[in-house]
Amino acid sequence: MVGGIAPHRINAMVLRYCYLLMSSWPRLLELLYWPALQIVTWGFLQNYISQNAGFFARAGGTLVGAVILWDILFRGQLGFSISFLEEMWARNLGNLMMSPLKPIELLIALMIMSLIRLAIGVIPMTLLAMIFFDFNLYGIGLPLIAFFCNLIFTSWSVGIFVSGLVLRHGLGAESIVWTLMFGLMPLSCIYYPVTVLPHWLQYVAWALPPTYVFEGMRALLMDHVFRADLMLDALAINVVLFMASFATFLVLLRSARRHGSLIQSGE
Fold first, then answer.
1. Considering its fold, how many domains does the chain have in total?
2. What is the pLDDT, as a whole number, of residue 190?
3. 59 burial class (0-12, 13-18, 19+ CB within 10 angstroms)?
């Protein structure tokens, strides 16, 4: 046991989610289907545009790269939240909270499961990008680690926050799991630079860690410059967001216990 956290309890929760995932082929198929569909659709679109616009010819694989990085961000959050929702759908969360399992152990298990689900969907996606569009994400090298870490930290922060909301308000708030990340999408400047936004909205965009990642990706692919300063700024914001989301989750958990919504977790 390290710092009061028991690895065997975390391992038990991860095994539970893995068994649940592997026992259902539709769940596995869904993890593969949507990323593959996205990369094929957007990849062919980039091929078409690059044949008719000089800018995109110079930009190379920025669109394909943006699609893959966006999927890491979105699937990371969804992989976290879906595993949490499985407990809500099964009306099992109250049982878990009455067990020796600590909230931090539950969240760590959800983070690990997020990585597992993400790997199942994104690795085949990157292989399709190599085969169809000659874009090798792994050719980015060490900067890819900085991109990935910042995106996954953001996805976990959002996942923890929305899980807390569903925990407190029940499955009636389930839709926020699917919609919140899409609400951040235009401000994260995934497919265009920050300068496209109105000046006042740029301040909002720069408050979001993914903005730094996508700007860094464009700088790397188009100008062949790794912007370490952008990655450090994103990391600093991620630390603040992660701590805030964890604190919010604990507050919402205490509120759910007081109001009895751990047991009555329906609509």
1. 1
2. 85
3. middle
Q: What is the reported pLDDT for 21?
A: 79
CA–CA gap between residue 106 and residue 111 (Å, rounded): 9
Residue 96: the pLDDT is: 80
For the chain, residues with pLDDT lower than 70 are 1-3, 25, 27, 33-34, 37-38, 40-61, 260-267
- Determine the pLDDT at residue 241: 95
Residue 265 lies in a domain: no
Residue 195 belongs to domain spanning = 7-259
